[in-house]
Amino acid sequence: MKTSQKIYLPFKRLIGIFGSFVGIIVCFSLLWWWVIPVNAIVTKGHPFFARHRIGKDGKAFRCLKFRSMKNDVNPHMSSLDKGVYDNLTGFGKFLRVTSIDETLQLFNILIGQMAFIGPRPLIDVNDTDIKTINLRKENGSIRLRPGLSGYAQIHKRGELEPEIKAMYDGIYFEHFSLWWDTKIFTYTILRVFGAAKGR
Fold first, then answer.
1. What is the β-pairing status of strands 147-149 and 115-117?
2. With DSSP H G I counted as helix, E B as strand and the rest as coil, what are the percentages for the chain, rounded to 5?
């Protein structure tokens, strides 16, 4: 890790604390006050979902999301699994398309489990993600907090092959800086509002 990156990391954490605190207030004011009760009705009282993920230095944490799938399906289904979209609730499809389901991860950022920008948080219950985790250990990107968005996500939304994921993570680890994070964050916002497509 470069000296400039070591200097940037504490600043990156301060951005995470301040930005997530402001984001929580904004999301509660504009979204959560109606999303929570609507999703509670749709999911029969289970609007939230906490999924086991692998974070900084390979440590596990509970990644928060709004539940978008039916209550009786396998919680470890990924975007590559057959029929996964058939198991989404109607409101869950809306939450996923708009990425509102991931806004609860602002709490993960606030307490230091995640960052706004970083490698994609992975699970360790399938061979694909385990392979990606091992490749991250090799390229050093496992040393960073996983991100709400990241270099891999702006290239393709959804699942990528483990080698491709790890390649993007390695590139990000080698070059991450305030300028890189700003570009990735800006591009992410443009994608959410449909003003940009995957690269």
1. parallel
2. 55, 10, 30
